Amino acid sequence: MVAALEWWSGTECTLYTDPKSYPLYGNENAIVVLNHAFEIDFLCGWTFCERFGVLGSSKVLAKKELAYVPVIGWMWYFLEIVFCKRKWEEDRTTVAQSLQNLRDYPENYWFLLYCEGTRFTPKKHQISMQVAEGKGLPQLKYHLLPRTKGFYVTVQNLRGTAAAVYDSTLNFRNNEVPTLLGILNGKKYHADLYVRRIPLESVPDDEAECAAWLHKLYQEKDSFQDHYTRTGRFPGPIMSPPRRPWSLINWLFWSCVVLYPLGLLLAQLLSSGSVLTITAAGVVCSSVSMGIRWMIGQTEIDKGSNYGIKTAPVNNN
Ligand SMILES: CCCCC/C=C\C/C=C\CCCCCCCC(=O)SCCNC(=O)CCNC(=O)[C@H](O)C(C)(C)COP(=O)(O)OP(=O)(O)OC[C@H]1O[C@@H](n2cnc3c(N)ncnc32)[C@H](O)[C@@H]1OP(=O)(O)O
Ligand SMILES: CCCCCCCCCCCCCCCCCC(=O)OC[C@@H](O)COP(=O)(O)O
Q1: pLDDT tens digits, residue range 136-145?
Q2: Is ligand 1 within 6 A of the CB of residue 63?
Q3: Tens-digit pLDDT profile for residues 94-114
Q4: Phi, psi of 188, rounded to the nearest 5 degrees
Q5: Where does the chain cross the membrane (predicted)?
């Protein structure tokens, strides 16, 4: 998937960050907080993981539904990805337990948190801003109101092993609306990512203070997006790591290993002349193709969940 983004579509990913923090990226454990408004934001995240050598140890707090996506979801299960049901009563123990398992992870990892909990849509935004109003919080223009419990439990459980929070804000040039289908069709996009490294010690220990800290972080992220919309760039210098050839080499290697025998098999099937065999092969190929289309659909915002639409009772305390 990374090879498709970087080498097939040629999408450019530019990093804006502080040069003093740059040498630490990939050399420490970190909690990444990213906005969730684009269908390929996770793919851009993977690209940066690849460039800093932590692709294999990239983790995320993901909705449970993704564990059932064929191949990718099963793989995530074995990669110690943390899954949640987005029901706090059930998640509070399971998420904490999965995070504890990460404490002795043998490689440097990045743990991704989409604190908004779901992807941005105008309707979800309107409802979450009603919740913000009820809580006496300022309005956000480009983000949903962040859910604070997952962030608090992550900080609490990874404190002492994660060194920092990487506050990451992603946007695309020229109001591009990137899609996975676009990438697979070879369309080139231009992603810009602004990363601020915040030492974990500066995140408060107390739950209410930690929640207030996160709300303030999202107000700042909103102002960065505002800056981007006005000027076409994020504040701060560009420190972009170049794409590396490994994902391409990996992809070419596996394509040869898989496609060559598959091609031979197909040729044999066609030359067999058996209508039944050819029909069965056609049904299998169509099913795989429909399965892949369904998987791509998982990335599409207009096929997204209703989470964040049904408003929970507002707590005014
Ligand atoms: C740049 C580098 C990138 C590095 C990349 C690294 C790794 C990449 C690896 C893999 C990539 C894979 C990509 C897969 C992506 C998959 C991502 C997802 O699945 S996102 C969805 C799952 N994740 C989350 O939901 C995380 C955020 N959520 C939380 O933290 C939640 O708190 C929770 C722990 C999930 C619990 O959920 P629950 O619904 O029960 O939430 P809360 O109890 O928090 O909700 C009640 C709370 O919210 C207020 N409320 C109610 N309605 C709304 C609303 N509409 N909007 C906002 N807030 C609302 C309500 O008043 C309560 O408030 P309070 O807490 O004050 O009581
Ligand atoms: C050679 C190329 C072959 C191409 C094969 C293409 C295979 C396609 C693989 C699809 C990968 C599926 C990964 C799904 C990741 C989706 C991440 C995501 O963004 O999830 C959304 C959640 O965060 C929130 O969900 P909502 O509440 O918004 O709903």
Answers
A1: 999 999 999 9
A2: yes
A3: 999 999 999 999 999 999 999
A4: -95, 130
A5: 66-84, 248-269, 275-296
Whether the CB of 42 sits within 6 Å of ligand 2:
yes
* Of 43, 42, 15, 68, the residue nearest 238 (C-alpha): 15
Going by alpha carbons, the residue nearest to atom 12 of ligand 2 is 295
* 37 touches 122 (CB < 8 A): no
Please, are residues 41 and 183 in contact by the beta-carbon 8 Å criterion? no
Q: Which two tokens stand for residue 16?
A: 């804006």
Q: Quick: pLDDT tens for 77-92.
A: 889 899 999 999 999 9
Ligand 2 neighbourhood includes 299 CB (under 6 angstroms): yes
Q: How far is the CA of 69 from the centre of ligand 2 (A)?
A: 9
| pLDDT score at 175 | 94
Question: What residues contact residue 108 under an 8 Å CB cut-off, 6+ apart?
Answer: 26, 27, 28, 29, 54, 57
Scan for tokens 């851009």, then name that residue.
44
- Structural domains in the chain, CATH included, are 2-245+298-303 (3.40.1130)
- In three-state secondary structure terms, 227 is helix
pTM of the model: 0.94
Distance 296 CA to ligand 2 centre (A): 6
* CA 69 to ligand 2: nearest atom: 12
Distance of CA 294 to the CA centre of its chain: 19
Tokens describing residue 148 = 């604070």
44 alpha carbon, closest ligand:
1
What was the ipTM of the complex prediction?
A: 0.93
| CB neighbour class for 246 (10 Å; exposed up to 12, middle 13-18, buried from 19) | middle
Question: Is 20's C-beta closer than 6 angstroms to any atom of ligand 1?
Answer: no
Taking a C-beta distance cutoff of 8 angstroms, is the pair 1, 82 a contact?
Answer: no
Helix or strand run (H / E) with residue 47: helix 41-51
Q: Is 273 exposed, middle or buried (0-12, 13-18, 19+ CB in 10 A)?
A: exposed
